[in-house]
């Protein structure tokens, strides 16, 4: 009986405790503490500890944002207000449940520009952030931002790398675009905290690598310059071709598959002086965005990568300048206001003096022969004007011109073992360059809508001319053999881009445009006045074709969840050439997801279409390739690329690691048949000498980085494959492509020493690239050449399978030391550098040499870039 009574009392006690636990009111005191946990976790803790049940719809209320809460002994209602108000979540009691909904607070949209306090320069990628709402945005390519927040938001914080953070009062913001001015840090370079490559990736768009001026200043300064293209070539998945080639190959693609933009205008050749310099003067580069996967829909026309470079606008308040002179080149830049606060200008120029100082440096005597001399030089110039019509309207004009020239002369008589002909005072010239001009108009339609209209023109050309004075053996006759070969491509673009930001979670971009492509793929002229006969002028390939391209796009940069970012878009285009119309619809998807403990997952899947083709000579590194349009027989190139990666940053941001894999297929790529080349394949029927096939590239990339401290740098490694298959090339068998490099390793180190010195080193190793060589040769039967001895018959080579051999591996060490000292009114610096510090003879091209006297043939490896010492003195005022 007692036992039964005890059980009854125990049951009543438990019921009483349960009822008491469910009886709560708004005045009850609660305590809860969490660190960097989702809101949903906070609700779970309150349910378990206090019996408070929450009800909500996951489609309406987002409880994924992570919070840090430390509430001790506060009334329930005040505690919930503190937890939910920053996320615009309201709560009400219905029965014994708390129902969560989204509060319809009045909102306020703030838009404007983030600028440098001193110069008025627009800052690209600056962060505008609300710490209360835990939402933010970044400025676009023109420094413009727009963010929509609850009206009771007190203020916003604005930050940018290398600048003091600023605060914007929402209540004081005007209805029109506001101007946020940030003060540059007055720190010495050795203590500037630089958010380098991987940290920028964590904070910015999906799979975008952004290089700011602060990033570029932290790069090794080779030959006195921290070059933006050289920085990109040191990243995994990117290579610069053979030593001295200067071409950019991304994930096994060819150089023509990279869209390189200078202020929105395409550049078709990006290097000077065989790749030692790029065409982008680092003194005037403001920002660089680089994509090798997850291409945004606003970009189109290429398969492998996007490089979008913006130049400085020019100082609106004061005059500034920089000048430098070294053993290789000299440069100068000046900027300032034409009208303070309204109009600015920027002018820069560079010119190498290698033609005056190092005539014998760039050509191997074995290639040029006795008595040969050579010189090479480049120059370029930029100009930009920026004018503010009103707070809502700005206009920009920029132009670029650049050119390289290589000249080889045979000043003395020389006997070539292959032809046994006498040459004297003969020459060969190579000339190539770019020209661009850009006109842009920005207009702010409202606090949420921004537009940019662009009209630009670009041109790339090259020409080759030669003149040989010869004397056939055993005769008294003389002759002059001369010729010329040149090509050109021109682009004219008109487009308009819109950016709409309805809320911080969405940035919607859309636009349209038209491009006119003008192709002059090759003109050849030959003259031979042997035996005193009048010269016969033979010209062929003088054709011009025009292609019209139309495109439109739409994309949404969407923060779908607190830890999930998406870039979803589509790019549609059409191409009309010679009465044939091609069209393409290209979906794009990129995603990034943040995991706990600073792990980040990223993935992408993209389609890309390219209407332009490059007729490339596999055996040469000179810029003699031809740009041609798609035709009736050669369809546009089309690619599909999928990538997946994971990255990790250490707790204090000192170290970072990332691993990424990719797989890419390419359809309708082209390759010369047999022995065709740009010199005999140019003409109206160029598509008859090429074969159309498919390509494939895949691999993995590893990046290890140290981002802070006096010692900084990274190690990048790439394991990659790239191949091609054509029906009539290599008997239809798949073969390694020209840019197939199995291993690529880059080591970059920068070391600060005291207040004034900075040391840097860059070591690169790349395994050999594919090479086609004859497997047998024999003397043919036929009429001898007028330049050959009668007893010599022509040599005929039997070529084996395509690209079955490999060049020797390439490796090179570049080192530099920079001394900087700041004076009251100006800053001076000395840079001492060594290009190819241990004088490694890396291959530039290969040629088969025939020695008839010894009756042997051998493969000669020609190198053109030995050790290059340089001293550069620079001033900045």
From TrEMBL:
One Pfam family, short name: Plug
Location of the TonB-dependent receptor plug domain: 224-302
Keyword terms: Cell outer membrane, Membrane, Receptor
Protein location: Cell outer membrane
InterPro entries: Beta-barrel_TonB_sf, CarboxyPept-like_regulatory, Plug_dom, Plug_dom_sf
Keyword Membrane annotated: yes
Presence of the UniProt keyword Membrane in the record: yes
One GO location term (cellular component): cell outer membrane
Name of protein: TonB-dependent receptor
């Amino acid at each position: 009986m007692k036992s039964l009574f005890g059980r009854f009392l125990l049951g009543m006690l438990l019921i009483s405790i349960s009822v008491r636990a469910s009886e709560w009111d708004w005045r009850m005191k609660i305590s809860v503490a969490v660190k960097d946990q989702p809101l949903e976790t906070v609700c779970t803790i309150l349910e378990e500890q206090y019996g408070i049940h929450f009800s909500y719809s996951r489609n309406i209320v987002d409880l994924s944002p992570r919070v840090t809460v430390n509430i001790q002994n506060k009334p329930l209602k005040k505690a919930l207000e503190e937890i939910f108000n920053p996320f615009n979540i309201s709560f009400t009691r219905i029965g014994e449940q708390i129902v969560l909904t989204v509060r319809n607070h009045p909102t306020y949209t703030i838009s404007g520009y983030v600028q440098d306090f001193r110069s008025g320069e627009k800052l690209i990628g600056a962060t505008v952030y609300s710490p209360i709402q835990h939402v933010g945005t970044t400025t676009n390519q023109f420094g413009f931002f727009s963010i929509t927040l609850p009206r009771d938001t007190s203020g916003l914080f604005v930050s940018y790398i290398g600048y003091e953070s600023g605060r914007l009062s929402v209540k004081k913001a005007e209805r029109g675009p506001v101007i946020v001015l940030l003060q540059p840090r007055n720190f010495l370079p050795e203590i500037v905290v630089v958010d380098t490559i991987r940290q920028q990736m964590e904070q910015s768009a999906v799979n975008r690598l952004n290089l700011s001026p602060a990033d570029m200043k932290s790069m090794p300064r080779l030959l006195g310059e921290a070059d933006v293209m050289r920085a990109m070539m040191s990243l995994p998945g990117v290579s610069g071709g053979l030593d001295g080639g200067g071409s950019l190959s991304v994930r096994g693609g060819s150089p023509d598959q990279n869209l390189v933009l200078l202020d929105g205008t395409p550049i078709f050749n990006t290097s000077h002086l065989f790749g030692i310099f790029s065409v982008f003067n680092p003194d005037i580069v403001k920002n660089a965005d680089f994509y090798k996967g997850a291409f945004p829909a606003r970009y189109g026309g290429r398969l492998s990568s996007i490089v979008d470079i913006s130049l400085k606008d020019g100082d609106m308040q004061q005059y500034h300048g920089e000048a430098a002179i070294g053993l290789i080149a000299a440069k100068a830049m000046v900027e300032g206001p034409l009208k303070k606060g309204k109009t600015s200008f920027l002018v820069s120029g560079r010119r190498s003096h290698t033609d005056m100082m190092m005539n014998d440096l760039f050509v191997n005597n074995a290639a040029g022969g006795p008595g040969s001399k050579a010189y090479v030089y480049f120059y370029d110039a930029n100009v930009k004007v920026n004018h503010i019509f009103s707070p809502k309207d700005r206009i920009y004009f920029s132009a670029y011109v650049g050119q390289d020239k290589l000249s080889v002369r045979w000043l003395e008589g020389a006997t070539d073992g292959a032809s046994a002909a006498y040459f004297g005072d003969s020459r060969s010239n190579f000339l190539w360059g770019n020209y661009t001009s850009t006109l842009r108009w920005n207009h702010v339609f409202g606090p949420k809508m921004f537009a940019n209209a662009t009209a630009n023109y670009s041109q790339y050309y090259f020409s080759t001319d030669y003149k040989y004075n010869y004397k056939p053996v055993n005769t008294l006759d003389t002759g002059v053999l001369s010729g010329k070969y040149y090509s050109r491509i021109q682009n004219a673009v008109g487009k308009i881009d819109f950016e709409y930001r309805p809320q911080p979670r969405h940035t919607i971009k859309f636009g349209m445009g038209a491009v006119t492509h003008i192709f002059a793929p090759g003109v050849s002229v030959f003259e031979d006045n042997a035996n005193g006969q009048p010269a016969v002028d033979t010209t062929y390939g003088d054709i011009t074709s025009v292609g019209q391209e139309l495109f439109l796009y739409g994309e949404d940069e969407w923060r779908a969840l607190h830890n999930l970012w998406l870039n979803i878009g589509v790019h549609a285009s059409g191409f009309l050439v010679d009465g044939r119309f091609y069209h393409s619809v290209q979906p794009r998807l990129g995603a990034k997801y943040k995991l706990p403990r600073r792990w980040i997952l990223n993935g992408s899947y993209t389609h890309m279409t390219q209407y332009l083709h490059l007729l490339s000579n596999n055996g040469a590194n000179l810029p003699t390739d031809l740009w041609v349009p798609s035709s009736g027989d050669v369809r546009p190139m089309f690619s599909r690329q999928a990538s997946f990666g994971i990255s990790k940053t250490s707790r204090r941001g000192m170290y970072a690691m990332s691993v990424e894999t990719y797989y890419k297929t390419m359809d309708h790529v082209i390759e010369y048949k047999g022995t065709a080349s740009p010199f005999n394949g140019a003409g109206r029927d160029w598509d008859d000498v090429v074969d159309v096939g498919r390509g494939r590239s895949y691999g993995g990339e590893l990046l290890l980085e140290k981002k802070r401290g006096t010692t900084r740098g990274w190690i990048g490694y790439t394991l990659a494959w790239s191949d091609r298959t054509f029906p009539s090339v290599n008997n239809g068998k798949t073969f390694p492509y020209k840019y197939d490099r199995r291993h690529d390793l880059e080591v970059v180190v920068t070391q600060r020493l005291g207040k004034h010195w900075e040391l840097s080193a860059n070591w690169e190793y790349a395994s050999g690239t594919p090479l086609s060589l004859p497997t047998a040769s024999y003397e043919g039967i036929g009429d001898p050449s007028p330049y050959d001895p009668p007893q010599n018959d022509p040599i005929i080579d039997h070529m084996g399978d395509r690209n079955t051999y490999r060049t020797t591996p390439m490796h090179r060490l570049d080192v530099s030391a920079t001394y900087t000292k700041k004076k009251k009114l100006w800053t001076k610096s000395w840079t001492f550098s060594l290009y190819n510090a241990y004088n490694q003879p890396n291959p530039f091209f290969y040629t088969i040499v025939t020695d008839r006297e010894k009756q042997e043939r051998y493969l000669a490896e020609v190198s053109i870039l030995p050790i290059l010492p340089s001293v550069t003195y620079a001033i900045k005022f």
